[in-house]
Every structure is written in C-alpha cells, then in structure tokens.
Amino acid sequence: MKSGTRHPTGYWAEEFMRPHQAFLAEGYQVDIATPQGRQPVVDELSLSLGYNDNDQKSVDDQRAYIAGVAALKAPLVLGKVNAADYDAVFVVGGHGPMQDLAVDPDIGNLANAILSNPKKVFSAVCHGPASLLSIFDKDGNWLFKGRKLTGFSNAEETQATFAGERVAEPDATGVPDRI
After folding, report:
1. Lyase: is it a keyword of this entry (predicted)?
2. In CATH, which superfamily holds the domain spanning 13-159?
3. What is the pTM of this model?
C-alpha cells in the first residue's frame, strides 16, 4: 500500500472465472501453473459486493465456480511447464499475480519461449501485464525495451486506492521500476 502497510491479496476472481469459462467453452484444455506450484488465493476484495455491483448472486456464482476448479487446488509448477506443450498462455489479473509474476524468472522463461513462436499467444489481463517485467531475451535485455505497451494505468490504480507514490520509470536496463 502507499503507506507501506501490507494488504492481503490474490488473483481477481472474475478475471480468472470469465476467461476460464470462455476457454473451456471453446474446447481448450486449460492448465493452471503458479510459482513453485503454490495454490493461488483469490483476492477477497474481488468478491466484495462493492466490486460486483452489489450483486450477491454474482459473488456466490464466482465463489462456487472457483471452488469447483480442481486445478486451482493443485496447480502445476510454473518452472516445470514446457512451452512446447501449449499454444497460449494467459496471465490472470490481480495484485497477487502482479506481485509474484513481476519478479518471477519462470514466467519470463515461459513467455519468452511462447513469444518466440509467431503461432503462439501470450496474453494478460488487468494487472497481469506486470508479468512482462520478467521477460528478457537471451542476452539479458528486457524483451519489450523501446516498445509501447498497455496495461492497468496509474490513474486506474489511484481510483482503486492502491497506487504507489511514485510513477514507474525505466531503470538502466529499460525495465520499468517495479512499483
């Protein structure tokens, strides 16, 4: 938090549920992987009425859906995932993935392998693009140096009251500061 206090977080419920439903509806096999294979935690704030248009049914539906996804209880170890086995990688949003994946070399290795094949897709939603901070080329250069990217803006983060006090600026390697 801005004040330096810790805030419990995790992945954003709807940003997991809706894409997961859509991928399955299209017939895709969906695996879930996390750093060290840790069980991901849903951000309870994402299940609050205030973030769900005061719709208790929506909250209940999200909780029920998440509880029914067995792969969330035993995810794959991200560092052991073989990019050759996948056509696409999707990074869910939330402050949890933003904190974990922005500094995780395994997501960087996986993304780099996926992105090296023009027929494969690497995508992320909301705070998920923070994982891009971990993607370097074989020479150790940030893969996106000099490119324009989109993601959750500082203005949006400020509206959600979680913004830092500084604006992210690239360091000497071209990687934006991890704020």
Report:
1. yes
2. Class I glutamine amidotransferase (GATase) domain (3.40.50.880)
3. 0.83
